[in-house]
């Protein structure tokens, strides 16, 4: 007897509702993945404005859920369990999703699971590539997070191996895009500009790669400053800014550090599979360099398609399905959203 799991995501600027079917053999099938984004409302501020995001979630939540049920050809009464992002994320934004999920769970009388957004970014890969081997290594790269994680059990045991000490990789993309007068969010336009540039044109620094640096931690703020200084110097000389070359050289520095550290972590811990997820996993150079280096090191690489890498409800439904399959205890209806939920807490 298969079960339908509904997933609700509202941690940042995407209102997501996903529906999946958990089959008896533990495989999880994607049925619907509807997203409403408020990104355009934040663009002129160059970053997400929390109050604007919360209001947008409130307006989009029920229509997005309706679209998901229509797409899947299901009724609310078909739902067997609900999972919702409990954290980490923006407090007011999380609250909208958590409140909606509690209302649906109470009205439908089904179990509710408050789950971890970061674990959702990893779990989503099972919708495309099937069950995750255990252990596997995950490189999570988004606008808010840059982490290397050891995943022994997607439903229960995730351990942080390293993380950024300052900016997240996506944040660096967004800040560098701003320096280059490219639109927000900065990842896609930099990715595009870089295709016409020379990645060796400018030797930007590789943060935290010295012999005394923590081998699996990251730093991107020095890189961002180096790009700013380079652009300022060119402007002072009255030179035109070679946007394509700056974008390509910056992108190469990011992809180089991320892939080198991830492959080293996998090799040193004897882990044979690397999953890269989060918004920055959609980056074309990151995935091509990761493919090259993983192949050379004999590591299997899994990168979900771009639509699944950025925030969505399907990732929360997928994680919820794994949590249900593992027989975890549901969350009590009075749990609170936790903006700083640690990645080691997969469900609360
Ligand atoms: O996972 P996500 O949708 O939201 C967070 O949880 O943060 O990630 C958003 C981030 C943004 O910083 C955006 O610039 C970046 O992912 N991003 C990319 C690309 N597409 C989105 N970065 C590099 N290359 C891309 N193609
Ligand atoms: Zn995310």
UniProtKB/TrEMBL annotation:
Q: Does the keyword Cytoplasm apply?
A: yes
Question: What parts of the sequence cross the membrane?
Answer: none
Localization recorded for this chain is: Cytoplasm
Coiled-coil residue windows? none
One BP term from GO = tRNA threonylcarbamoyladenosine modification
Q: Does the keyword NAD apply?
A: no
Under which main EC class is this enzyme filed? transferase
Cofactors (names): Fe(2+)
User: What do the Gene Ontology cellular component annotations say?
Assistant: cytoplasm
**InterPro entries, sorted:** ATPase_NBD, Gcp-like_dom, KAE1/TsaD, Peptidase_M22_CS, TsaD
Which Gene3D superfamilies does the entry mention? Answer: 3.30.420.40
Give its E.C. classification number. 2.3.1.234
Enumerate the GO terms in the molecular function aspect: iron ion binding; tRNA N(6)-L-threonylcarbamoyladenine synthase activity
The record's annotation in Pfam families points to: TsaD
The reaction(s) annotated as catalysed by this protein in its Swiss-Prot or TrEMBL entry are: L-threonylcarbamoyladenylate + adenosine(37) in tRNA = N(6)-L-threonylcarbamoyladenosine(37) in tRNA + AMP + H(+)
Q: Which CDD domains match?
A: ASKHA_NBD_TsaD_bac
Per UniProt, residues of the Gcp-like domain are: 29-317
Under the heading HAMAP family, the entry gives: TsaD
Its protein name is: tRNA N6-adenosine threonylcarbamoyltransferase
Q: Which species expresses this protein natively?
A: Prauserella flavalba
């Amino acid at each position: 007897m298969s079960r339908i799991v509904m997933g609700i995501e509202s941690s940042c600027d995407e209102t997501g509702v996903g529906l999946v079917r958990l089959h008896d053999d533990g495989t999880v099938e994607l049925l619907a993945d509807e997203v409403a984004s408020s990104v355009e409302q934040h663009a002129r501020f160059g970053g997400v404005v929390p109050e604007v995001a919360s209001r947008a979630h409130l307006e989009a939540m029920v229509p997005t859920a309706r679209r998901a049920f229509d797409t899947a050809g299901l009724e609310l009464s078909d739902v067997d369990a609900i999972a919702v992002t409990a954290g980490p994320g923006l407090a007011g934004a999380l609250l909208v999703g958590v409140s909606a999920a509690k209302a649906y769970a109470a009205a439908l009388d089904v179990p509710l699971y408050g789950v971890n957004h970061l674990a959702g970014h990893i779990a989503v890969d099972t919708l495309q590539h099937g069950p995750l081997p255990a252990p596997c290594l995950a490189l999570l790269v988004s606008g808010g997070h840059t982490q290397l994680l050891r995943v022994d059990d997607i439903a229960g045991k995730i351990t942080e191996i390293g993380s950024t000490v300052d900016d997240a990789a996506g944040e660096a993309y967004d800040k560098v895009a701003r320096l280059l007068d490219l639109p927000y969010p900065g990842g896609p336009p930099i990715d595009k500009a870089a295709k016409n540039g020379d990645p060796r044109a400018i030797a930007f620094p590789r943060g935290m790669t010295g012999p005394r640096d923590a081998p699996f931690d990251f730093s991107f703020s020095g890189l961002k400053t180096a790009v700013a200084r380079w652009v300022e110097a060119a402007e002072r000389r009255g030179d035109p800014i070679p946007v394509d070359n700056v974008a390509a050289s910056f992108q190469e520095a990011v992809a180089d550090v991320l892939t080198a550290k991830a492959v080293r972590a996998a090799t040193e811990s004897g882990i044979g599979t690397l999953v890269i997820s989060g918004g920055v996993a959609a980056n074309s150079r990151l995935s091509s360099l990761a493919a090259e280096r993983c192949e050379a090191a004999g590591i299997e690489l899994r990168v979900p398609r771009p639509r699944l890498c950025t925030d969505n409800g399907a990732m929360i439904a997928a994680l919820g399905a794994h949590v249900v399959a593992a027989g975890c205890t549901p969350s009590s209806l009075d749990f609170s959203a936790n903006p700083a939920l640690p990645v080691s807490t997969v469900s609360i």
